[in-house]
């Protein structure tokens, strides 16, 4: 199961392994399952030092015909790309947005990242998207690889974040 989670970035294999670690009676079996879960964490934690997006190239001219390099794209051009079908492409887009330094408290950006996280299936994309949502909201992502802590936090704080949206220009005082 850990092999599937690691080699395919399979979040369901990770979740199943996580459930197994809490349901086993035998210490020996539980320790074996925890060791396997630890291997998955080593492969996909933010401290792994591994990025699986190095070979992913965005078709920049299709996004903006006046640009030829990924680094030239701005956050507003990248955010819609979070709906990309390929998980590693979503991870690449999230990395590019993160490098651009997205505006803190931008509801448009945080909502797009949240929606991408909600439908995510790949642990690499979870890692990068969770980090990006933490960067935009200022909230820590938590320790779970599927970023359920920050997803839950976002759902509870969504209305407040909408009200604090940094993209909204306040109405001038009369």
Structural write-up:
Helix 1 (2-8) runs parallel beside helix 3, helix 6 (87-100) packs parallel to helix 8 and helix 7 (107-118) runs antiparallel to helix 8 (123-137). The chain contains nine helices and no strands. The chain is mainly alpha-helical and 174 residues long. 59% of the residues lie in helices and 0% in strands. The mean pLDDT is 92. The longest helix is centred in the first third of the chain and has 18 residues, at 27-44. It is globular, with a radius of gyration of 18 Å. It has helices spanning 2-8, 11-23, 27-44, 60-63, 75-78, 87-100, 107-118, 123-137, 148-163. The N and C termini lie far apart (63 Å).
Task: State the order of secondary-structure elements, H for helix, E for strand.
Answer: HHHHHHHHH
Beta strand count: 0
Characterize the biggest β-sheet: none
Can you give the helix content as a percent range?
Answer: 55-70%
What proportion strand?
A: under 5%
Radius of gyration: 18 Å
pLDDT < 50 runs, ≥5 residues: none
Query: If you average the pLDDT, what whole number results?
Result: 92
Taking the alpha carbons of the first and last residues, their distance comes to 63 Å
What's the helix count?
9
Could you say which structural class the secondary elements and strand pairing correspond to? mainly alpha
């Amino acid at each position: 199961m850990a092999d599937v989670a690691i080699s395919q970035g399979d979040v369901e294999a990770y979740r199943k392994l996580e459930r197994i670690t809490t349901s086993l009676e035998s210490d020996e079996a539980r320790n074996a399952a925890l060791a396997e879960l630890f291997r998955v964490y080593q492969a996909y934690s933010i401290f792994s030092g591994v990025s699986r997006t190095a070979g992913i190239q965005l078709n920049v001219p299709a996004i903006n015909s006046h640009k030829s390099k990924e680094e030239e794209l701005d956050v507003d051009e990248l955010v819609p790309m979070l709906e990309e079908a390929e998980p590693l492409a979503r991870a690449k887009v999230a990395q590019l947005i993160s490098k651009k330094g997205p505006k803190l408290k931008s509801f448009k950006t945080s909502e797009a990242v949240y929606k991408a996280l909600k439908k995510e299936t790949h642990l690499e994309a979870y890692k990068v998207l969770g980090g990006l949502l933490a960067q935009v909201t200022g909230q820590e992502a938590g320790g779970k690889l599927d970023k359920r802590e920050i997803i839950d936090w976002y759902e509870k704080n969504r209305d407040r974040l909408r009200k604090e949206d940094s993209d909204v220009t306040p109405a001038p005082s009369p």
